[in-house]
Amino acid sequence: MKPNIVFAGLAIPLLTLGLAAANFPDPPSESIAPAPAKATIVLAGGCFWGMQGVYEHVKGVTNTVVGYAGGKKATAHYDMVSSGNTGHAESIEITYDPSKVTFGQLLKIYFSVAHDPTTLNYQHYDHGTQYRSSIFYANEEQKKLAEEYVKELDAAHVYKNPIVTKIVPLEGFYPAEEEHQHFMMRNPTYPYIVNVDVPIFEAFRKNFPELYKK
């Protein structure tokens, strides 16, 4: 659950490292095959409010939906997922135009500013497997690129600790309740948003100006 209290002393991965986006390792090269007009990827990295707040402002992203992945449809409800016993992760389904933004660029944002990929089953003050770091790949190309990028980042010692992001096949994505969709945009003064998600969003906007859309 996201308590309605004020937090302090939050750390943003890229800023904590003192890295500029230009110095953060780029992802592996992608296939040169003609890109489809539309592609999707499901990412999990803590509270889905903030993840959506970032990715809905990425150029080339045409739609974002917050929801649950990793568990069964019958238990894909916020109150049940929040128990940490359903197998789900709070996730975001990103639909994008590969001719405008690549899968690799989406991963670079994910690993550098959107969340901390080195914390196991928690982000900031949210604890539980529902807040785990996970990439739910849609095809073998996404799997290959994600695995190669994790190896590259670990080999470069970008983080003090190893990356714990799970890379697993997407077996189902279930949209969250309407009240959670675009929560950050609809509730900009909510304390959790102000203290946890806005700093992450600002890190994205500052470090990826070429990918930021208003």
Give the end-to-end Cα distance, rounded to a whole number of Å: 29 Å
Give the beta-strand count.
8
User: Tally the helices: what do you get?
Assistant: 7
Percentage of β-strand residues: 15-25%
Radius of gyration: 16 Å
Structural class, from helix and strand content? alpha+beta
Uncertain stretches of 5 or more adjacent residues: 4-12, 15-20
Fraction in helix: 25-40%
For the biggest sheet, the summary is:
6 strands, mixed
- Taken in chain order, the helices and strands follow as HEHEHEHEEEHEEHH
Main sheet: which strands, in order across?
A: 7-6-1-3-2-8
Q: Summarize this, please?
A:
The chain is α+β, with helices and mostly antiparallel strands and 214 residues long.
Sum up the structure in keywords.
globular, alpha+beta, six-stranded mixed β-sheet, 214 residues
Topology:
Elements: H1 13-17, E1 39-45, H2 48-55, E2 61-69, H3 78-81, E3 89-96, H4 103-114, E4 122-123, E5 126-127, E6 133-137, H5 140-155, E7 166-169, E8 173-175, H6 183-186, H7 191-207
Helix pairs in contact: 2-7
